[in-house]
UniProtKB/TrEMBL annotation:
<dbReference type="InterPro" id="IPR013830">
    <property type="entry name" value="SGNH_hydro"/>
</dbReference>
<dbReference type="InterPro" id="IPR036514">
    <property type="entry name" value="SGNH_hydro_sf"/>
</dbReference>
<dbReference type="InterPro" id="IPR051532">
    <property type="entry name" value="Ester_Hydrolysis_Enzymes"/>
</dbReference>
<dbReference type="Pfam" id="PF21181">
    <property type="entry name" value="SsfX3_N"/>
</dbReference>
<dbReference type="Pfam" id="PF14606">
    <property type="entry name" value="Lipase_GDSL_3"/>
</dbReference>
<feature type="domain" description="SsfX3-like N-terminal">
    <location>
        <begin position="15"/>
        <end position="122"/>
    </location>
</feature>
<feature type="domain" description="SGNH hydrolase-type esterase">
    <location>
        <begin position="147"/>
        <end position="327"/>
    </location>
</feature>
<dbReference type="InterPro" id="IPR048977">
    <property type="entry name" value="SsfX3-like_N"/>
</dbReference>
<protein>
    <submittedName>
        <fullName>GDSL-like Lipase/Acylhydrolase family protein</fullName>
    </submittedName>
</protein>
<keyword id="KW-0378">Hydrolase</keyword>
<dbReference type="GO" id="GO:0016787">
    <property type="term" value="F:hydrolase activity"/>
</dbReference>
């Protein structure tokens, strides 16, 4: 029996969901946006969110008896880690800010092992090891489809019970898709560096959930919103000419539907703008699809919102069930 180091920089085939990993001494920082783009983004808040490993996970087949790692978390009140064995949640490890060492018990037989890192909280890791194994560890089978999912905190899913139960994770697990989650709490402003990141990644399906952060931060006005949505989609389409792109407008948020922000627009206005742009662009693009966010979480379902804006655990499960069906249909139809 032996111990195996599964450092993400030495064994990238075992790790999924990060655009890149950056070394800092013995620590490894997962990035969900390329750090080289920071200089021209002028969005430090966005890149801080990109250090939170939503959707980042290790996936392997192993007969190890333990998995150990060290964490360094730079955010108060981080999300937990989830350990799955044969796609069943067997341990949810609560963590705190600062450095800690974790040990996960494994079955000691050949099994599919997944370790999902916290969806909320800047996270670095070190000394990731599989212990007491015969040495038969190998990557999990390659997923047949890669899905890039862009959005706000409602896509990052801080209020989900754990990282394997965010709505993107639930959909990806159910459909056996390889997830790249680009959900950035408070930072879904259609930044050009995000469009460039999506452009440069391999994708079989792309989903874009647009509007809620623009409402809250007053990013665009009625004059600029539609053009920004159209340009963002077009920028991605240039590199993904045959990939289905599904654009979802904001889910229901009763307090914001008819209330104007400082730019004089309501959430309903922004949603209608998304609908108009996708309707216009899809005339010449049969692989561009619209999902009305109020069909995914409805006005009458405000009790599924934890704070009037973000879904709670049941809300995210409801979203996963509904949008998963739509995404699968659009992927099949092209």
């Amino acid at each position: 029996m032996t111990d195996i180091d599964i450092d993400p920089m030495d064994h990238p085939d075992l790790w999924h969901g990060a655009v890149s990993w950056e070394p800092a001494g013995r620590w490894r920082q997962p990035w969900r946006l390329p750090p080289r783009l920071q200089g021209r983004a002028y969005a430090p808040e966005l890149f801080e969110k990109a250090k939170a490993p939503a959707g980042v996970r290790a996936a392997m087949i192993s007969d190890a008896r333990e998995l150990t790692l060290e964490l360094d978390i730079g955010t108060e009140d981080p999300s937990p880690l989830d350990l799955l064995v044969d796609d069943e949640l067997v341990q949810r490890a609560q963590v705190v800010a600062g450095k800690s060492q974790l040990t996960f018990a494994l079955p000691g037989r050949r099994a599919a092992i997944e370790l999902w890192l916290p969806q909320h909280g800047q996270t670095r890791l070190a000394d990731v090891q599989l212990r007491d194994t015969t040495g038969t560890t190998q990557p999990a089978p390659q997923a047949p489809r890669r899905w890039i999912c862009y959005g706000s905190s409602i896509t990052q899913c801080r209020h989900a019970s754990g990282p394997s139960e965010t709505w993107p994770a639930l959909v990806a697990r159910a459909e056996e898709w390889d997830l790249l989650c680009l959900g950035f709490g408070g930072q879904c402003h259609l930044d050009p560096v995000v469009a460039d990141t999506i452009r440069d990644q391999r994708a079989d399906l792309i989903s874009l959930c647009l509007g809620i952060n623009v409402y809250g931060a007053v990013t665009y006005s009625a004059r600029t919103w539609r053009g920004r949505v159209a340009d963002f989609i077009a920028r991605i389409r240039e590199a993904h000419s045959e990939t289905p792109i599904v654009v979802m407008s904001p889910i229901a948020s009763p307090a914001r539907e008819a209330s104007t922000n400082a730019a004089g627009v309501t959430l309903t206005d922004l949603r209608e703008g998304v609908h108009e742009v996708v309707a216009d662009m899809s005339v010449d693009d049969s692989k561009l699809h619209l999902v009305d966010g109020t069909s995914i979480l409805r006005l009458a379902e405000a009790d599924l919102l934890a704070d009037g804006l973000h879904p709670g655990p049941l809300g995210y499960r409801t979203m996963a069930a509904r949008i998963g069906t739509v995404l699968k249909a659009n992927l099949s139809s092209g």
